[in-house]
Amino acid sequence: MKSVKILVACGSGVATSMHVAVKLKESMKKAGLKVIVDGCSVSELPYRSGSYDIIVSNAQVPFKLDKPVFNAVPILTGIGEDELIEKIIKTAKETYGNNSGQTAD
């Protein structure tokens, strides 16, 4: 199975994006998905997003991107975190037609 590539963005591309990246890696692994997760600053998104399947950002994304974009704030606050991660897993599975038998429910 191909790895799902997720790009996590925050204001600086360092602290909060890495926190979110670690949580996403753990959750995707538990869901049986292969994943590559990298971080960047929001200003880098127009140049870096083309190589990724899903974008997750804790800051407003002021660019039109041709990828699914998710708001990372629930992962940072813990409020709505499970629901957001389920949506990201569902999107990843839909993107790759994962036949592992696991669902996002």
How does this structure look, described?
Helices cover 39% and strands 20% of the residues. The longest helix is centred in the first third of the chain and has 16 residues. The chain is globular. α1 links the parallel β1 and β2. The protein has a 4-stranded parallel β-sheet with strand order 2-1-3-4, covered by helices on one side. The chain is of the alpha/beta class and 105 residues long.
Strand and helix order: EHEHEEHH
| Beta-strand proportion | 15-25%
Measured between the Cα atoms of the first and last residue, the distance is 21 Å
Mean pLDDT: 86
Number of helical stretches of at least 4 residues: 4
Strand order of the largest sheet: 2-1-3-4
Query: Which spans have pLDDT < 50 for at least 5 consecutive residues?
Result: 98-105
Shape designation: globular
Overall structural class, as computed from helix and strand content, comes to: alpha/beta
Task: Please tell me how large the radius of gyration is.
Answer: 13 Å
Largest sheet: 4 strands, parallel
Indicate the percent of residues in helices: 25-40%
Strand count = 4
